[in-house]
Amino acid sequence: MDNRDSIKKRICHSRIISLRLKDRISQLPDEILTNILYLLPVKEAARTSVLSRRWKNLWTYVPSLIIKDYMSSPEMELRPVRRCRFILDVFCTYNPSQELTILLDYDGTTSRDVNEWINFAMENWVKMLDLNLEQYYTIEKKFPVMKDFPLTKLFLTEVNVIGEVLEHYVSNCPFLEELYVSSSNSLVNLRLVDQPPKLSSFQVAHCSNLENLEISAPNLVSFGYVGPKIKNMTLRHVPLLSKVAFGGKYCESIEFDSDQHASYLSQLKKLVLYFTKEVVDRTSLSPYKLPVFCNLKKVELKVYTYLGQSLHPLIALVIASPLLKMFSLEKLVENYNIWKASKHPHQCLKKIKWVGFDGSGSHVDFAKDLLDIAVSLKTFIIDTVYPNIAQSEDYAEFVKRWQIAVVAACKIAESHPGINYLIDC
């Protein structure tokens, strides 16, 4: 009995001590607490409102609100109208001064719901709006009364929007700096002429029906287009444009229709290209066909093709960029051995980074071509971890190919001394 009494006393004593312990978390400043709540899903953050009076509305002041697949759980099977109402109710309690992200994939969501979310976000002065709906909903052609909204970033993914509607929205957002439109099948013609005035970054991707794109933006610094060839792309009055990224079939315009880029080509400092296998098959990338990138300092290439193809034609981009400082390659490209790279020494290239070096003959030849022309090279980074192989279930095959790549990289370093090699293995 004495033993039991002793245990009971100890338990009671520990309970008393625990009751006396202070709530250290609640003593933290609101700024730290809201940053912690920001890391939680909206549902979990909202549950903290029952902890105390201080916590009641604290979750509504997180820097950004992310609603992601929120109604997809079995206990939340609501009809579209109720789903829409729930999200709007969240808006009502939220302090809408920062960012709003909605990532939904509901079959029952309607275009009317989407329009309500956009209008509500703008009416409540949200600064960043990101809609990713995965079901191609359409923004209706109903213009709300708008003027000078503080939106600075707008991202639309799989949201169908026609040019007239998009032009209306962005023209009423004078502070808009970043605009991203992806996978909008309704976008055919888009004209952004001096509106919005502060636009500095504009990206268009996978809008398969786009035919005409006209841009005049005095503060535009970065522009990207990924997709098929389009009838007309005009960029004028873009004095600050220094970075462009192209992908898909439109990459061919660099070689075959360079006049499209004449208005800004001489001011480019960074060029990013995403080549597909089909584009590689049609592109020779000869230094005699490419325009001269007279101010280009950095080139990033990502070429998606099969293992072992020759990378020789990519040397043309280096040769066409006399002031190039950094060349970054992520695996691949085509086989056209019709001119000798060593006849074109490059005086400014200081650093090369190669991701996905596999040690094959074509990769080794391309590396040697680079080293032959880069007479001022200081650093060569070779990443031998090949992405596709690293995901393979055949571990033995991965190890074998990895060893081949490492040995080949070391031999390259031995054959061209005097350079700082960083072989990531």
Q: Top keywords for this entry?
A:
425 residues, alpha/beta, 29% helix, globular, 14-stranded parallel beta sheet
Give a nutshell description of this structure.
By secondary structure, this protein is of the alpha/beta class.
Outline the secondary-structure elements.
Blueprint: H1 2-20, H2 30-38, H3 42-47, E1 64-68, H4 80-93, E2 99-103, H5 111-123, E3 128-138, E4 153-160, H6 163-171, E5 178-182, E6 189-193, E7 201-205, E8 212-216, E9 222-226, E10 232-236, E11 243-247, H7 253-256, E12 270-275, H8 277-282, E13 298-303, H9 315-319, E14 326-330, E15 351-355, H10 361-373, E16 379-383, H11 387-390, H12 395-415, E17 420-424
Parallel strand pairs: 1-2, 2-3, 3-4, 4-5, 5-7, 6-8, 7-9, 8-10, 9-11, 11-12, 12-13, 13-14, 14-15, 15-16, 16-17
Helix pairs in contact: 4-5
Q: How does this structure look, described?
A:
By secondary structure, the chain is an alpha/beta fold. It has a domain at 63-241. The protein is 29% helix and 23% strand. The chain contains twelve helices and 17 strands. It has helices at 2-20, 30-38, 42-47, 80-93, 111-123, 163-171, 253-256, 277-282, 315-319, 361-373, 387-390, 395-415, and strands at 64-68, 99-103, 128-138, 153-160, 178-182, 189-193, 201-205, 212-216, 222-226, 232-236, 243-247, 270-275, 298-303, 326-330, 351-355, 379-383, 420-424. Strands 1-2-3-4-5-7-9-11-12-13-14-15-16-17 form a 14-stranded parallel β-sheet. Helix 6 (163-171) links the parallel strand 4 and strand 5 (178-182). Helix 4 (80-93) runs parallel beside helix 5. The longest helix has 21 residues, at 395-415. The protein is globular. Mean pLDDT is 78; it is low at 70-78 and 333-338.
